[in-house]
Amino acid sequence: MAKTSPGEFIRQVRTEASKIYWPSRQETVTTAIFVGLMTVLLAVFFLGIDTLFGSFVQWLLSLI
């Protein structure tokens, strides 16, 4: 592999950095709200499933 000079390396880094897509503030806020909402919904869902299974196990244990 050929060595790259420091100047060429900097040029390549700048070229690649210019290809980066930075989301707008609105996109970032919308995505953050969506992630927060999904986190809350999944937490409530898993709380319900855990409570249901916990009750089922307690019922099974009470049969013994």
UniProtKB/TrEMBL annotation:
Family indicated by similarity: Belongs to the SecE/SEC61-gamma family.
- What keywords sit in the KW lines? Cell membrane, Membrane, Protein transport, Translocation, Transmembrane, Transmembrane helix, Transport
Localization of this protein: Cell membrane; Membrane
Give the organism the record lists.
Answer: Novosphingobium rhizovicinum
Q: Name one Pfam family in it.
A: SecE
Topology in the lipid bilayer is annotated as: Single-pass membrane protein
Quaternary structure (record): Component of the Sec protein translocase complex. Heterotrimer consisting of SecY, SecE and SecG subunits. The heterotrimers can form oligomers, although 1 heterotrimer is thought to be able to translocate proteins. Interacts with the ribosome. Interacts with SecDF, and other proteins may be involved. Interacts with SecA.
Give a short account of what the protein does.
Essential subunit of the Sec protein translocation channel SecYEG. Clamps together the 2 halves of SecY. May contact the channel plug during translocation.
Q: Which InterPro entries match?
A: SecE_bac (IPR005807), SecE_sf (IPR038379), Translocase_SecE/Sec61-g (IPR001901)
PANTHER family tied to this protein? PROTEIN TRANSLOCASE SUBUNIT SECE
Q: Where are the transmembrane segments?
A: 32-61
User: What is the gene name?
Assistant: secE
Name the record gives this protein = Protein translocase subunit SecE
